Amino acid sequence: CYSSWGYPTTWVPCEAYTGELAIFDAVTVETASSIEEALRMGAYAEAGALFACILLIWKHLSKFLKRDRDEKQLTTLHTNLARNISGSLQVCCNQVQSCFSSGSVGGLEASLKKLRLWTCHLLPIVAQPAFANAPPGWRKMNEACMASLKTTNAALVGYASEARRSMEAGFDSLEIGRAAEDARTVRTLGRVLIFDGRAYAEDIKDFLHPDSAELLRVISTLNFRGLAEIGQHYAVLGVHPPIAAAELKKARDALVKKYHPDKSKTSLAKGLTQRINTSYEALVPAGDSSGDLVAKLDQTVGQHFHHCLKQLKAKLEGSLKEGSYSTVRTLLLKVRELHAMRGEEGLLAATNEVQEYVHNVILAQVNGARANMGRHWDAGNLADVQKELDKISAITKHLSDSFEIHSEAWKASLQDLVKEKLDRLASNARGQLRKDPSTSMESMRDFALELIYIGRIMEQLPEYRMLAKERIQNLLEQVQALPSGPTYMFKLGRLLETGKVGCASADEAIGKAIVGEFSHFENVRVVTFNQRTAAAYKSINDALAEFQIFQVPGDMPVAMAPDVCRRAASKLEAGYNIYQKTYDQLFADWHTDKLKEEDIPRLAKELVKTLPKCRPNSWPVELREKVPEILAHINCAYCIFHSGATFERLDKAVDEGEVERDQVNEVLKRPHSIQVTSQLHLLGYDSGESSTELLSRLMQVRTGEGKSILLGGLSIFFGLLGMRVRCICYSADLSARDFRDFEGLFECFGVKPLVKYSKIQDFSEDLILANGNTRDLLLDLLDGRLARGGSGDELAVREEQQQQNDIVLVDEVDVFMGKDFYGKSYQQVASKEIPEVSELMEHLFSNRTRYPNPRKAQEAAFGHASYTKLISKYPAWKEIFETEVKCMCSDLFHFASDDSHYDEKTGRLGYRENDGIEYDAVRGYRTAFSYLDLAERGKLVDKKKTLQENVQLMLPCGDFSYANIGRPTILGVSGTVQSLGKSDWQVIKRFGIRHYSDTASAYGESNLKWSNPACTVSADRDYYRDIVRHVNQMVHPKLARAVIVFFKDLKTLRSFENSDYFKEVSTKQILEESMTTKEKERVIRSAAAPKQATFCTASFGRGTDFVSFDPALDISGGADVLMTFAPESMSEWIQICGRVAREGRPGSATLILSESEVSDLGLTASKMRLLPFEQQFSHLERAILARHAKSQKSLWTDLEAAEARDIASRALQSALVSGNAGRAMHQYSSFYKQTPSRQLKNIKGSGSARIICLSDATGSMAGIWNTTKAQITTMLERVDEFAGKGALQLNWVAYRDYSDPNLLEKSGWLSDSSSLLRFVGGIVCYGGGDGEEAVEHALLVARQEHQAQPLNRVLLLADAPPHYERKGQKLNGHNHTLTTDYHVEAQEFAKLGVPIYSFVVEGVSTMQNTYETFSEISCPPGFSTEGKVDYLKDPQQLIDIVCVNALEEIGGSEMVAQYRKRYG
């Protein structure tokens, strides 16, 4: 009893007093040592009892002990003791928190039990208020412990709350997979919370009441409170239900005996015994009636699955009612996900019921649609028939693989009805033709009416559109064959165009649609166009008054002096007058039969023959002076070719009084004055007389003002001069369309072989192929059949000579800055069918689920018999084939693509490109595996043939820079030249273009108006709602306008389509790249119709002509363009707006942006909402230009890399063409090693890396860990960018020293930034300070990780050296004996061949020999290793350390070089 000893009432001899003090001194030291050992062993009950003992010694005897011994030594003892106690709690808390940061909830139960032992036996002592003369460090210990518990409690509450929130959010958003994963987490967490969690809350209630209450609140929100009230008693007794009464009593007795006051000798024993008995008494009455709490907990969580199923059923009911079958399909897939979770009680039967319900509703709807269709057909309501057809088609499209929808018999019967009606209408029409239609206007009206009836089927029943078109086509052919056919056709077209035939309100639009659809009415369309635009056309003088010329001496164009522009305009006016005079004479001579149609091209050729031979770099004055006359011949021929025959027939009809004279002149399709002056300018007619060269230049011609006619005429002009002409565009579809319009005229002038329309990439490819087919030559080399040919030098000379005669005509300047062109390369691949390769790929694909990563797949591939046969067949190609197999294995893990599309009709797989699908595109071996996937799913039309053609060896044989097109003369026309920025002009100037001109619009100022409001910044949650609100406002009968909505990409469009808001739009259609050409044409043609909403992607925002056939639309304000995103450039902005208000017609534009989109532009949504539109537009323009300029910067880096590969590719091509097999093989080996897609596979780690990062986590390293937290996401994103997702697995280890409470913490092997960030964010830097840390222990842990699964390298980040003692020695200042040392570990890693890369933090007070010590670790004496040591001079350097080491392991020095180029 220390209190009675501290106050003696009798005199004690001095020697005895001193002896007693020595005893107590020894007891104090021994007790402190025992406490430290107990804390280390986790024996917190013993530590609590001993701590209470030593506390009593201090409380009652400290004044005697301090009086007769070194007070400093005693203070140090108690300070260290307090630190060890708070540190032990920190260890417990860190272990609990690490379970959250690493996502390892499974270890939480053990960690929380350990924490509970501490709180039971130490917290009541530590938490008591500081008393007078408290031991040194007491207050800090108390504060540190309370802080640790608060932090841990907050982490526990936060994790539980987040787990609940994430699970509920997953179920609410119907992300079943995520929700199920979260439900597993909640269940695991719940098992902890209802037992030890609730008991822990009781432990801390008296000391941290608010925190305890918060934890209880979270348990309640998880619906676990009732279970936890019982569960805490099981936790106190240390048992789990269900448990027999005898076993429960046995557990109670054991604990009562252990903590009996007579045995425990602790002041807490009484309270513990009382709590044990209370828990036992609470459980005994229940007996086994409480059942299995875990099962009840599972049922509680399982209710969320059933609630989710109810949500799904409600949504299914709504979607079925609304006819949103794509949503039904999505929801059914969710139901099937729930169906697969067979462990959930009652869920299997419930999901079966839902699926059966949907099936029954679908069948009822199909049958109802068929019945409705019959009634509508009988009533002649074709639009309603189509609605029912669309309904069945939508059901079939989205649900045919889920249910047996219907047989095809009913569809055949409907088709028979349609054919029967079409044949009857066609027969009636033919009857009208037999009534001598040339004299009877009444019979023409009747004939037109029959066409309208057929047209109704064509327009209102798209399913049978082709059948109706065939009937109309045949009827029009019969009209044309009549003696007066052309005149009759013209009058018929004008009759249909006026809309005076038919009775239904839609018949006017149908008549116009027939005229717009069939080529027989081309001249009627010309008349309509000419009449509509005549009033808007500017005179030649007015147009040239606005003519401007710009030079580009620097980064941006500069307008030339006004007098220069005036002189040029004057020259162009004079040239136009010469042109017009020649044109009129030619046309008059043709009209009066002095010339035949074919004579005009002949005269043009003869005129050209009189001129001196010329090339773009030799453009003589004699040629320039004849430019107007040559153009007159070309454009006159164009006019006569397209409208001459009709003009002559109508001219004769004028004499007979059937047609008015003004209509005859309006039938002529001829270029307008601005097109002609633009041609004159581009051909250098207005250049000074001293100019002897045709300069490359651009010219701004507004969107929709005839660029295709302008370029077609120029193509003929250059073709007549014997030059090769390439007319390039960004879209293959638009190129094909424009070529078809001029194809006949190209033949008339004899220039068709010299003119080619294509994308610019195709032009680059043709230039390459002209010098030799590298694909075929490489396969010849592979098979040993390479034959000798010409020298590479000869080919280079020929290529240069050919390019001197090339003219490149550009339709839209954007082709130069296209993401698929500039800085990109044309990657040629030689494909060869080799049975061993096909067999190997099929084996890999069929066993893909067995391989956890590419490396395992490679091991299997290299051990397969087909690979052995392949190498024996081609021994010289072993190294290359080994890399190809690595590529296969890499592609095996990510062959699926969001932008792919499989056409079931043709059996071909393609990829989205601009406004279409490119079916010739190949994405390495991913395409082959995609075909194997389609085969596995039974989707291939001809499985054997398709796999034979696509599952092949694919050897890279060229990587040519698209930008390397030589220096041809480039003449371009574009509607967006003025919108180009500094970076755009930097690109354009590289092609030799330093001039551009701007001419007036042929139709005056645009009639485009901005809506009110013009720009809406929507909250993200309201974004779709605001889009639909605007669309419905536009298509409402009150306005009856058309609206065309542009989304950024298909993913966004799909998201909108699957939203509930999409259902609120009535008359809607979608335009997407995967449609066939005919399907696209149908949607585009019907887009500009009153009350029609069309939704499409941005790729349709240029070059797509949304033509209106309904004058009512113009009266209501025309079509409205709605942009739902901020365009990539101002050029794209102008192009999208240019889809409407063309050729003098009305139209409007609207912008709706989400807050996220605005934020991505660096703008503030709240401020933008307050600005008027003019200021909004100004802010958006600046932000878009800045973003575009930033994106352009990477072009230069990409270009440099592409040019380097281009040089290697041309060297290979030259070697192959020469036929020297040895030289060719050498060049191919060199080229192959430079190919990026193959560089990344020639690596140690086979495309992946496992790296362990050991980082000192003592107090001085806090800055490094804070930097790590900030940069961890960027690190992994950069690695993913170059190596692909999942290529790097990283294990981050925090180590301290042996006296620190938590010696070492590990993240585990992770590859996603979120998990790693959780771990790093949970690290607290503390301890250290004695100069040496447990580096050797961290290295030992890393070596143990390597033994479990090999790792590639070790990164070591530190500011203090390891301990210098050797293995087996006791550490100075620590109660620890080394089980290893840094010498041993360094040598072991060297033997294993695993390099250690050490980074010593610079700028802190480190020991003098720290750097040398880490040098010994990375490069141990007597061993040759790849390890290195360096200083970490700046915490920001850490990102490069991780990225460079990872990429070097994954892709070697080449990948690191690419990284350095990108990020410095």
Rg of Cα set: 42 Å
Shape descriptor reads elongated
How confident overall, as mean pLDDT?
81
Measure the end-to-end span: 73 Å
Can you count the beta strands? 25
Instruction: Give helix % range.
Output: 55-70%
Spatial sequence of strands, sheet with the most strands: 2-1-13-3-12-6-4-5
- Report the β-strand fraction as a percent range: 5-15%
Class of secondary structure makeup: alpha/beta
Total helical segments: 58
For the biggest sheet, the summary is:
8 strands, mixed
Contiguous low-pLDDT stretches (5 residues minimum) are 1-11, 790-804, 1240-1246
Q: Which helices and strands, and how do they pair?
A:
Elements: H1 2-5, H2 14-41, H3 44-68, H4 71-101, H5 108-121, H6 123-126, H7 138-172, H8 176-204, H9 209-221, H10 225-237, H11 245-258, H12 261-264, H13 269-283, H14 293-322, H15 325-339, H16 347-379, H17 382-399, H18 409-433, H19 441-460, H20 465-480, H21 485-498, H22 507-517, H23 522-534, H24 540-545, E1 548-551, E2 558-559, H25 562-591, H26 599-609, H27 621-655, H28 661-666, H29 673-682, E3 697-700, H30 707-720, E4 724-729, H31 732-749, E5 755-759, H32 760-769, H33 774-782, H34 792-803, E6 806-811, H35 814-817, E7 825-832, H36 835-846, H37 854-862, H38 865-873, H39 878-892, E8 900-903, E9 908-913, E10 916-918, H40 925-936, H41 943-950, E11 953-961, E12 969-974, H42 982-989, E13 995-998, E14 1008-1018, H43 1023-1035, E15 1043-1047, H44 1050-1057, E16 1068-1071, H45 1077-1087, E17 1093-1097, H46 1111-1115, E18 1119-1123, H47 1130-1137, E19 1147-1154, H48 1155-1160, H49 1165-1170, H50 1173-1218, H51 1221-1234, H52 1236-1239, E20 1249-1256, H53 1262-1283, E21 1288-1295, E22 1304-1306, H54 1313-1321, H55 1335-1348, E23 1353-1358, H56 1382-1392, E24 1396-1401, ...
Helix pairs in contact: 2-3, 2-4, 3-5, 4-5, 4-7, 5-8, 7-8, 7-9, 8-9, 8-10, 8-14, 10-13, 11-13, 14-15, 14-16, 15-16, 15-17, 16-17, 18-19, 18-20, 19-20, 19-22, 20-21, 21-22, 25-27, 25-29, 26-27, 27-30, 29-30, 30-31, 33-50, 36-38, 37-39, 40-41, 50-51, 53-54, 53-58, 55-56
